[in-house]
Amino acid sequence: MKPRRPRVTAIERSEHQFFGRFKSHEIDIERDSYGANWYIRVRHPDGCYVYDGWWQESRCHSLDDAILEACKGSCLVATPKGGA
């Protein structure tokens, strides 16, 4: 079963960058160019980072995939039982 996409509020979005909010957390995603890995930062409302780093082997993934990874990787959405 494919996970549902979270409803993230986009503040800025381009081909290689994203800034938005989800559950009061700031999500900042970027990469240098097509074919590069995504760098993801998710900041808790208190200012601490709950995700800050490269998403390994992500160069073939879309920006929407990176947004989902940011939400899953920072435990803002549940991962379906059995993976995915």
What would you note in describing this structure?
The structure is a single chain. By secondary structure, the chain is mainly beta. It is built from one helix and five strands. It has one helix spanning 63-73; strands at 9-13, 17-22, 25-30, 38-43, 49-55. The protein has a five-stranded antiparallel β-sheet, covered by helices on one side. The longest helix is centred in the C-terminal third of the chain and has 11 residues, at 63-73. The protein is globular, with a radius of gyration of 12 Å.
Q: Strand content of the residues, in percent?
A: 35-45%
Outline type? globular
The N- and C-terminal alpha carbons lie at a distance of 8 Å
Can you list the strand order of the major beta sheet? Answer: 1-2-3-4-5
Helix content: 10-25%
Number of strands: 5
Structural class: mainly beta
**What's the SSE pattern?**
EEEEEH
Q: Which ranges are low-confidence, i.e. pLDDT below 50, for 5 or more consecutive residues?
A: none
Helix count equals: 1
- Main sheet attributes: strand count, strand direction, barrel closure: 5 strands, antiparallel
Radius of gyration: 12 Å
Give the overall pLDDT as a whole number.
91
Keywords:
5-stranded antiparallel β-sheet; 84 residues; globular; mainly beta
Q: What does this entry show, briefly?
A:
The chain is mostly beta strands and 84 residues long.
What's the helix and strand layout?
Blueprint: E1 9-13, E2 17-22, E3 25-30, E4 38-43, E5 49-55, H1 63-73
